[in-house]
Write a structure and sequence with these properties.
By secondary structure, the protein is an alpha+beta fold. Helix content is about 30%, strand content about 40%.
């Protein structure tokens, strides 16, 4: 993997609630409205589980993209990992870790990815893609952390 980053989000939600919000397809769609992201096949609503896949369609940088991710590991309520099985990246891995705290919980998002196109892809990673993805993941974390009143299907 070429690029990596970590985002840390604190929440007043119990760790189990934050964990389920993070794997809810419906909440993910809500959190990504600006990119028009939607689940088009596989698990398209409710909670995704280990071994299951979801295919997303979205528009980023004005480009329509399709990406299929699989939950490759799930340890409720401590962590789960999703990895791209088809899509725009050469490789993409997102580890979600959760810790209970006295005030609620902490979610750590660890993302590793490799852009396609060799040297050109590495330049894109360094120039803007890593920062763009980090902002996207941090924004989603803030959305989830404030999700006490959201319904989980």
């Amino acid at each position: 993997m070429t690029a990596c980053f970590m985002c840390r989000t604190e929440s007043q939600l119990p760790v189990e609630r934050l964990f389920d919000l993070a794997r809810s397809i419906d909440v993910h769609v809500e959190s990504q409205r600006t990119s028009g992201e939607r689940a088009v096949s596989g698990v398209t609503s409710g909670l995704i589980g280990e071994g299951q896949e979801v295919t997303w369609r979205a528009r980023h940088f004005g480009i329509p993209l399709t990406m299929t991710s699989r939950i490759t590991r799930l340890d409720f309520p401590r962590s789960f990992t999703d990895e791209q099985v088809r899509g725009p990246f050469k490789a993409f891995r997102h580890v979600h870790e959760f810790e209970p705290t006295a005030a609620g919980s902490i979610m750590l998002d660890r993302v590793e990815f490799t852009a396609p196109l060799g040297v050109l892809g590495r330049a894109v990673e360094r120039l803007f893609l890593a920062r763009y993805l980090e902002r996207l993941i941090a924004s989603r974390g803030r959305f989830l952390a404030g999700g006490a009143d959201r319904r989980i299907n």
